[in-house]
Specification:
Low-confidence stretches: 1-25
Shape: elongated
Order of helices and strands: HEEHHEEEEEEEEHHHHHHH
Structural class: alpha+beta
Number of domains: 2
Number of strands: 10
Radius of gyration: 27 Å
Strand content: 15-25%
Length: about 350
């Protein structure tokens, strides 16, 4: 019996000596969050058990050395989601420190989140340690927003804190602007619309193409946002790139590069799934979801109209110059070759 006990003791000692990380985590670890919302910033002070953080990240953190904020920021942003008026925002670590609380060392991490204006509603989705190392972890959170203070304890069973409420006009403005920004920074969508315009000769043709494209992407935007139909993002983004390649090839090799409305409609269905990608990351519910979707789509349409109004007169002017000066005939075909190159690059980046 003594030999068995001695053997077990030696085995435990051996494990502790050569595998300290096995026992590194602390059961019932604690954390503290203080969130202060100001005009254009959201300050988040996170105090988290240093030993448990090391265990969850599978990386030893020496309290005597400067904490590597880059690695920790990646971990935190993937485990703490903050939504300002339903829009996800990411924090940047401003500084880190180590503090001792009740003889326990805590990593003190100060994050700053930028917002366009003070949000009316804030949602914190907290998932530190719960699924990685310590299901018994608890975080004591305090949020100060518009003079209102809300306190809660975030646990494995209750991981979310919500404070405030978004009004209709705030939603309208926010998602209208979001739609505009999305179309103006969606260079693949812009190049597709421009490619459609190369073969257009009349305002009526523009109306038919844009209407078909708008109806189509509105349909799939609605279906994807309400999760009626969902497609893998890699498939959608690759198909969007192929739509650019197809239209560019028609513009290069066809004498009459006029695109029929059904082409715009067919590819519009694909682009709609791409537009829905950003909304799928947000916390939208019920009437708020419908309102957000409508104004997001309106923002996209306004952006498309602006693009058409700017680009089409330039295309008409170039075509008029083609009749007088042979040297400028290469401009539209050359532009199509450039668009084709972008489409191919995007396809290979997204598909492989």
């Amino acid at each position: 019996m003594k030999k068995i006990c001695l053997s077990i003791s030696l085995l435990i000692s051996f494990i502790c000596l050569f595998s300290p990380s096995v026992f590194a985590h602390t059961d019932n670890s604690e954390g503290y969050s203080i969130i202060e919302v100001k005009e254009n910033t959201l300050n988040y002070e996170l105090k988290i058990d240093l030993t448990e953080l090391s265990h969850a990240m599978n990386k030893e953190i020496d309290p005597k050395q400067t904490i590597n904020s880059g690695i920790i920021q990646t971990y935190i942003n993937s485990h703490i989601k903050v939504f300002a008026d339903s829009v996800p925002i990411q924090g940047n670590i401003e500084n880190t420190n180590v503090e001792t609380i009740d003889d326990q060392q805590f990593a003190v991490i100060n994050l700053a989140y930028e917002v366009n204006e003070k949000p009316e509603k804030l949602v914190v989705d907290y998932n530190m340690f719960f699924d990685d190392s310590d299901p018994s972890h608890a975080n004591f959170i305090t949020v100060n927003l518009d003079g209102k203070q809300q306190e809660n304890i975030l646990t494995y069973e209750s991981r979310e804190l919500e404070i405030g409420e978004v009004n209709f006009f705030q939603t309208m403005k926010q998602f209208l602007m979001l739609g505009l920004v999305h179309i103006f920074t969606g260079y693949d969508h812009i190049l597709f619309v421009i490619s459609l315009l190369f073969g257009v000769k009349t305002i009526r043709q523009i109306g038919l193409l844009i209407t078909a494209f708008t109806i189509a992407h509105s349909i799939t935007l609605f279906l994807a946002t309400f999760q009626i139909i969902q497609l893998p993002s890699q498939l959608v983004e690759s198909a969007i790139a192929l739509s650019i390649v197809y239209v560019a090839l028609i513009n290069i090799f066809s004498k009459d590069s006029k695109q029929p409305p059904w082409i715009a409609f067919g590819f519009g269905l694909i682009h709609g799934f791409g537009f829905a990608g950003i909304l799928s990351e947000m916390r939208l519910e019920g009437v708020h979801m419908a309102t957000s979707l409508i104004f997001f789509n309106i923002g996209i349409e306004i952006g498309q109209l602006v693009i058409v109004m700017v680009v089409f007169p330039i295309i008409l002017y170039i075509k008029k110059l083609n009749l007088k000066f042979k040297r400028v005939k290469w401009i539209i075909p050359g532009s199509s070759v450039g668009i084709l190159a972008f489409g191919l690059i995007w396809f290979f980046q997204r598909a492989f």
